[in-house]
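Summary for the steering committee. One of the milestones for this cycle was to obtain a three-dimensional model of the protein with NDP bound, which we needed before selecting residues for the alanine scan. The sequence and ligand used are listed below.
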Amino acid sequence: MTNLKNQTAIITGASSGIGKAIAHHLANEGANVVLAARRAEKLNELAEEITEQYNVEAKVIETDVTKREDVEKLVSETKSAFNTVDLFINNAGVMLLSFLKNDHVDEWEQMVDVNIKGVLYGIHASLPTMIEQESGHIVNVSSVAGHEVFPSSTVYSATKYAVKALSMGMEKELSKSGVRVTNVSPGAVDTELTDHITDGDVIEMFKNRSMDPLEADDIARAVAYAVTQPSYVNVNEVIVRPMHQK
Ligand code: NDP
């Protein structure tokens, strides 16, 4: 295991859930963290928590990952502040589950924009620097729904399969570049993710579902494991789901 002292980690979607937990774990390993999302107030609270608890710097950059220029600014401001971008955690995502017959086309677009285009913008903004550095690590947060399709997850799954395809392609293309790639696929985790679902049929279906979800920390530990391996070890895929999730 290598610690992350003097490394810089950008985490998108750091204002809640899994991203917030990842920020804590990477800071605990010694990384300076750059916290990105739209809700600056939440990010500022997290930055305060992190600087109080760990001997690292935490910088907040308000970012909408659907805006290419925001993500470019996220990386350029990180480089100005810390000189390097060692880790880019493409975690921001939305899961607006719906049945196709209910035609939530605006939500389909939002998922494509955040979950696919947002991840592409993260790659676009950070990869050239990592290639130039001949080192770096991009972690893409996909999902168990990026390996299987569930009722109502059709479009969400399509976006998360896309994330997995991006990770697989990057892993092959970048194998000699010094840049590592990890695709992380969580199962059900207790976060704000399901709060934004609007399809009444899905909300009804969820009322009858019983599952003990994971905690965000359970996923953050997996990310910390992947990014603290020696530089010759490339952890390409991690799937973590609750014991009882089928
Ligand atoms: P949360 O809803 O708690 O967190 C989602 C994060 O994404 C928030 O920080 C939110 O920040 C950010 N986000 C959403 N839209 C944008 C945007 N346009 N620009 C920037 N940031 C944005 O959910 P999770 O922590 O659970 O989700 C994190 C990732 O994990 C997602 O990619 C999700 O698909 C994936 N995942 C989660 C699972 C679960 O069961 N929870 C299972 C499998 C995968 P803000 O609103 O402040 O912008």
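Key point for the committee: The chain has seven helices and seven strands.
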